[in-house]
């Protein structure tokens, strides 16, 4: 046998003449590999007087690596030991991951006055939510404009730290709306630690017979 392989080495490596058909590969969506989800309620956590909506994540099983969590400045998310680029960020179930770098995923276009609930979904969820959900997903659910309400907050501290929030919501019949503006800035405690973050958002809700129309705009 060894002599035959030495004399005809290419005969042993030759491919079969007829192609071979492989069995079908079926991919289905399922939640079997997802762990139990966790959620925070902004109404209940309001007693902590969080300055940033991201601070609500401090009471959930998420590893946060932030330059300044209180202001939501360049925060990285990690679930179940994943890297910051393996966590999918959703707003009302819609993907909002930054296409340039996952370091910018915390630059969310809403204020803490717009947030209703944060849902953390750990586990391999790429088959359900798409790419980047290897470690899991974090879903930010925003409030629908409701009764007439005005929110006005100010804060100041050393190193010229400043924070301001203004939110106004109202409803006229079937149409509800909310306008929110938030500004956070600091001179920094040393060189290259200064920051400034400005966020504005507009939410609209129109209810009509047989359904409703909801939309959120932010920058």
Walk me through the structure.
With 219 residues, the protein is mainly beta. It has 2 domains: 38-142, Ferric Hydroxamate Uptake Protein, Chain A, domain 1; 149-212. It is built from 4 helices and 12 strands, in the order ααβαβββββαββββββ. It has helices at 2-7, 9-13, 42-45, 126-129; strands at 38-41, 63-68, 73-78, 87-91, 94-95, 115-122, 136-142, 149-157, 161-172, 175-186, 195-208, 211-218. The protein is globular, with a radius of gyration of 25 Å. The N and C termini lie far apart (74 Å). The model has no long low-confidence stretch (mean pLDDT 78).
Order of strands across the biggest sheet?
1-6-7-4-5
User: What number of domains?
Assistant: 2
Q: What oligomeric state do these chains adopt?
A: single chain
Poorly predicted ranges: none
Overall pLDDT metric = 78
- Tally of contiguous helical segments: 4
Q: Tell me the number of strands.
A: 12
Binned strand content: 35-45%
CATH superfamily of the largest domain: TonB-dependent receptor, plug domain
CATH class of the largest domain: Mainly Beta
Structural shape: globular
| Gap from first CA to last CA | 74 Å
> What does the radius of gyration come to?
25 Å
Task: Say what the CATH topology of the largest domain is.
Answer: Ferric Hydroxamate Uptake Protein, Chain A, domain 1
Main sheet summary: 5 strands, mixed
CATH A-level architecture of the largest domain: Beta Complex
Helix content: under 10%
Order of helices and strands: HHEHEEEEEHEEEEEE
Itemize the secondary structure elements and their pairings.
Elements: H1 2-7, H2 9-13, E1 38-41, H3 42-45, E2 63-68, E3 73-78, E4 87-91, E5 94-95, E6 115-122, H4 126-129, E7 136-142, E8 149-157, E9 161-172, E10 175-186, E11 195-208, E12 211-218
Parallel strand pairs: 4-7
Antiparallel strand pairs: 1-6, 2-3, 4-5, 6-7, 8-9, 9-10, 10-11, 11-12
């Amino acid at each position: 046998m060894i002599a035959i392989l030495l004399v005809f080495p290419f005969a042993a490596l030759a491919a079969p003449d007829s192609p071979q058909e492989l069995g079908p590969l079926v991919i289905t969506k399922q939640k079997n590999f997802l762990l139990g989800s966790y959620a925070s309620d902004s109404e209940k956590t309001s007693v902590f007087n969080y300055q940033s909506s991201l601070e609500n994540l401090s009471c959930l099983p998420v590893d946060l690596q932030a330059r300044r969590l209180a202001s939501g400045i360049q925060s990285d998310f990690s679930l179940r030991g994943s890297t910051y680029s393996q966590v999918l960020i959703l707003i009302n179930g819609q993907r909002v991951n930054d296409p340039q770098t996952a370091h910018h995923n915390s630059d969310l276009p809403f204020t803490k006055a717009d947030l209703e609930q944060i849902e953390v979904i750990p586990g391999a969820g790429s088959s359900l939510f798409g790419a980047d959900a290897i470690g899991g997903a974090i879903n930010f659910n925003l409030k629908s404009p409701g009764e007439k309400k005005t929110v006005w907050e100010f804060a100041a501290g050393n190193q010229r730290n400043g924070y301001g929030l203004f939110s106004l919501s109202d409803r006229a019949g079937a149409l509800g709306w909310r306008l929110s503006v938030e500004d956070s800035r600091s001179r920094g405690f040393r060189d290259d630690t200064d920051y400034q973050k400005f966020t504005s958002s507009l939410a609209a809700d129109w209810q009509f017979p047989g359904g409703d129309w909801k939309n959120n705009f932010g920058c």
